[in-house]
Amino acid sequence: MDYRKEFPIFENGEKHYLDTAATSQKPKKVLDKVVQYYERYNGNPGRGSHELSMKASEIMDSARETVRQFINAEKTEEIIFTKSTTESINLIAYSYGMEFINEGDEILLGISNHHANIVPWQFVAKKKKAKIKYVELDDDGQFDLNDYKYKLSAKTKIVAVSGVVNVTGVIQPVKEIIEAAHRKNIPVLIDAAQSIVHFKHDVQKLDADFLVFSGHKLFAPMGIGVMYGKKELLDKMPPFLYGGDMIEFVTEQESTFAPLPNKFEGGTQNVGGAVGLKEAIDFIQAIGYDKIDKIGKELDMKALFEIKRLDFVETYCTENVERTGIIAFNVKGVHSHDVAFILDSYHVGVRSGHHCAQPLMNYIGIPSCCRASFGIYNDDEDIAKLVEGLKKVKEVFGI
Ligand code: PMP
Hints:
The chain is α/β, with parallel strands linked by helices. The protein has helices at 28-41, 51-71, 85-100, 119-128, 145-151, 174-182, 203-206, 231-236, 271-287, 289-308, 336-344, 358-364, 380-397; strands at 16-17, 79-82, 106-110, 131-135, 156-162, 188-191, 210-214, 225-229, 247-250, 255-257, 313-315, 326-331, 348-349, 351-353, 369-373.
C-alpha cells in the first residue's frame, strides 16, 4: 500500500521529507478529525454542564482511554495530557524530582539523552545539590549496561533514558535498564519520543515508572503530549501546574487538589490535540506496528548501504546494533548545515546541527551532523535523491 497518498502535504510540489524524527507528517484522517472537532464540537471540557462542554469532556475521556490501551496502562488516571515530551519530563523533574531528590543523591542519565531529558534534571540537581551521572556507550554506540550497573547505587534516586536515541536511531535495552534499577527500588523514566512510533510499548510488561512522548512525532498535531506514571507514584507527587481545573477547593489562602488525572492538568486542555492523538493512534493501529517498523528498517538499510558506498561520507552507526529508521552522517570536511542546505535544493529535507544532544556530540567527538530519518511515506526515490544531493555536495566542495 502507498501510505504517501494518505498525507496531503505530499500533494503539492516535490518533497523528499527525511526529517520524521523531528516531526512526522499528518495523515488526512487526523487533520479531518481535528477540523471536524472545531467545526462541530468545540467546548471547554470540565467547565460547564451544557452540551458542547460535556461533549469536550467526553472526547478527552475517550482520547485518554485510547492512550491507556495503546500503552497498556492499568488505569486511565495514569495518563496525563501535556503539551509535549519536554513538558512531561519537566513535570516529572519539578514534581517528583523536587520532592524526592535531595542533597547528595544521584540522577542517572544516558549520555545519548536528548536535552529535554538532561536540562530539567540539571535544574533539579542544582536546586537540590544532587549529582548527575551519565551512562556511557559501548563500542557499538549502544547503552553500556555494564557501566550502568556499576553506576546504579544506593544514592541513585531516578534513572532517565531514551527508548530510541534521536541522533543515531539506536534502540536501547529499556527492559534490562528497568529491571536492574528495580532490583534497587529506583524508578525509571523512559523517554519514548522516538521509540513510540516504531514499536509497541506495554508499560505494564516493561514495568516502566514513567513513560513520556509527544503526539507530533506520532502523526498527531503539535501541542499534545503524554506523561504516563504509575498511580502510586503520581499520588505521592505534588502538582506541577497550579490553576483552574486541578483543584478540589480553593479558599483565600489554601487549596486542595483534584484527584488524578486532573491534579496534573491545570488550565484549559488541548482537546483538538487529544482528538488528533486519538485518531493518530487509530491510524497506527490500523496499519500495524509490524508494517511500520518493517518499512522504516528497510528504508534505513537501503539508505545506509547507499551512503556507505560514498567514501566522502561518514556515518555514526554500526550493523551490530538494532536501530530504527534514523541515520546520522557527515560529509567529511563540510559543515552539516552546508550539506543540509545543498540537499534542500534537491527538495531533500534532513536535519542538521547538534540535534539537541550536545553531550552525545561531544562524546562521539563531532560538533554536529546531518540526520536522515524515515517514515511510512518515504520510498526508494527519496533515498536516490539523497544520494544525488550528497554527490552534489562533493562536487560543490571539491572533495
Ligand atoms: N526526547 C527525544 C528523544 C526527542 O527526540 C525529542 C524531540 N526531538 C524530545 C525528547 C523532545 O520532544 P518535544 O520537542 O516534542 O518536546
